[in-house]
């Protein structure tokens, strides 16, 4: 939505919004959101989105928003119990009311509140004035009370579920829904009451009786005047509660003459205050809204008007386009004197560079076009080569790993990355959902980069240059410079090398497996049809739900908008009720295996190299773990035997090579022992005991040689469950025991491992004090969920506080090990390559003559990456493929 569209009016309509109702709806509909410094924003976000949508849909001439000013109104004075049962406003919601008003002010939208009156009364007053001036009225609210204002000139839009589902009412719809006319809504509530507002009504009179009475007698007063004409039961109820019925009607009646000075002219839509709007949306960190609303008039949603900067000035840079040989040579000399170059590259991985921008310092910007003459391109590439290999020049980029791919097209390598803006921003703000240079510039420099503009590339280079000092200072302040310079920055070259090297796959075997799975799916399909008694679309949730719950009469699961839920949790609960269910579960598992992994991997094999070249994402997860895509090799399934067999097709690049796997043994439990300083855990690891057998011995009170496989299995579930903050309910479900028994296991665990219990209590307490938790190597994760009034959300925050220092530390350790191993392999000029990282496991393609050297090298650096209170242990395996590796 552009700024211009916010003031477009296509009809003689006033939109009147119930601010309090919509804010509450948004707050409860949208999960808790907060800014980097902990300011809650979910209600503001939902309200703003709903407001913009309704403005776009209705395009009214006038608009206003009404709010409650205080809880005490004339209704409380008449009836002290009115709304007395309402819970206190959640702490996370309180500050969002003023933020919503800030948004409205920036949008130049009139808002109202009046002491002693509710928002409904202000709405009623505005509606009356608007109708008197022959305007059409649309009311937006989540409160059915508002329906009493519906008329020939006024319609109401009510939010139903959350803020996305709405229901529109005119006078006819009101009657069809409730059996009474809009002007009888107050009488209806006078009879039935309204529990949400604590309006008592007449005890014993329900909706059906109330509707019948009002259809016959129009109003509460007329019913009381005709008691001799109604049933004896209703007569008795009305006689005993006549005053209460009239009181309830008064409480439900919206006032239409609140003494406020308001005219339609004051509500007319005017242009937003662009500077204020920019400021508030930036403060709230609503990046997408900011881009959408500050869109250039071209209609390109990626082009942000530079004039909407806080200082109302475009961020533009002057730059020199180089063309002559001496210009390129002079620039190299200047770069060597400067000792720092910021690079912004434009191009495509498979087609190379289009142009390059360099910035030596603010105001010193240069553009190197690479699509002009052959001679100029040659000069530019030579300059790039000289800069990239010069160890005395600090190379600064936004996403260095992506830039390395572009440079690699020409055989150019950055010998040593100097600074990566994206990675620095990632450490400082790990919870961001999306990352880009314009977003980072907005966050740290208060400027907007105009993507697609003529100056975008040189402007980007200068922004990168400016961000370096700012982000370095922030890393230093948060004591994260070691994490950045020792792990994250050097790791990007390791990942770039792994991406380029790729993973060899046996394509023929993959195709054979695809055919085999296809045959199994055909057999399963026939069996499913036979048990169902008819042919249907197994992949259609609607048709499957009809078969299971209507034809076969199985116990229905969750109902969705489109029908019955048939997700895996529903099917697993029904597995013992009918043989078709287990067939369906197997069908789904094999179908996903075939489409996602077997056929999916086949389609991603590079035709030139015959390998898979995944992309590693270093700045995505909040825990610090790596992720990957196209394909996601972190997620190759191992639960099913058929899934594990996919690993068989990951082979060495040469027939004589081997696949070598090095996997940290129980690293998260070892980190827990170190962080918690629990004597029993540390003792078990120091003695090289089987940790699950030791835990079973402690929890079940038996000697280690008396621990049964079942005991060990349950202890294993407890060990790993504790790391993830498992509850008695979750553990009971996992190991199939009663909740009481699971609770006993957990209590026994904490009694024997008291240091772990003390750690959990401590880390949650400190997280609440600081707002974040840290790993061993000082990676941070901010936890706004800890401060939620919602118990479920708060509990999730507590579990995250418990687990992040453990899982995040494991991620940091293996990253550091990767850097150390890669560095040593290059130093020794080994031909073997690191090809994959899957959580706690590293995979190598090893030359036969280097097997022993690689084993010793990898074991040493993985086990000595950091020093803990307990030893780090690596399990090593080797074989002809990833599936058939054998323990060394």
UniProtKB/TrEMBL annotation:
This is DNA polymerase I. Signal peptide: none annotated. CDD domains: DNA_pol_A_pol_I_C, DNA_polA_I_Bacillus_like_exo, H3TH_53EXO, PIN_53EXO. One of its GO terms (biological process) is double-strand break repair. PANTHER family: DNA POLYMERASE I, DNA POLYMERASE NU. The gene is polA. Keywords: DNA damage, DNA repair, DNA replication, DNA-binding, DNA-directed DNA polymerase, Exonuclease, Hydrolase, Nuclease, Nucleotidyltransferase, Transferase. It catalyses: DNA(n) + a 2'-deoxyribonucleoside 5'-triphosphate = DNA(n+1) + diphosphate. The keyword Hydrolase applies. Its EC number is 2.7.7.7. Belongs to the DNA polymerase type-A family. Single-chain monomer with multiple functions. It comes from the Bacteria. Residues 643-850 form the DNA-directed DNA polymerase family A palm domain. The keyword Hydrolase applies. Residues 9-270 form the 5'-3' exonuclease domain.
